[in-house]
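Hi Y.,

Following your request, here is the sequence exactly as I used it, all 196 residues.
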Amino acid sequence: SGLEGFKNGLARFEASLLKNEVDLNQLLNSFDGNFGLAVTLKPEQMTMIPVGIGKFVQIPQPGIAIFIKVKDDYTFNVIKKKLAPVIPQPAPGAAQPKPDEKRIDIMLPLPLPVPLMPVIVQEDGYIIAATNPALLDSIRAAKKNGNGLIVTEEFKKLSANIPENGSAFKFIGSNFAKTLANVQTQIMMSSAKGDP
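Below is the corresponding structure, written out as tokens. Let me know if you'd prefer a different format.
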């Protein structure tokens, strides 16, 4: 039956995780059931991205952050162990990370049009993965100073009657829609000019 097939598939999946030193039950128990995703645009730092051969559009520098609420260190430790091959070792004489520090800096030797230096931390009950350290710093500053998204007039107006706790909340700022429309216009204008 379908249920039997599902059980067998789950058992195979769990066995393959155990083979890779990941305990599925411990991993699931590590999660606290909440997560979030933030996509940011930095209008003060414009980036050129390719949209074809010899064609580029200019966009505000994008960033992505993922937030996962956790109960313990298990998930972070699994991530750190699995990412060990791409975690750079400190240069000789450089400050060494503390053994209990919950931070992973990842080096990607790829030439990209946007800064991509992923960083993953665990703090205040969350694992936070950000596309670069500057984004992580801005997240920390917003939390510390209380000047993040929730204090903007646009967010206050749209969230006036929404409860503070719940699930599946989504907010897309007006600047994001304007940026998307601008990018689409640039692409259409670039296409209208034809190939170089």
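The first strand starts at residue 31 and ends at 52.

Thanks again,
Q.
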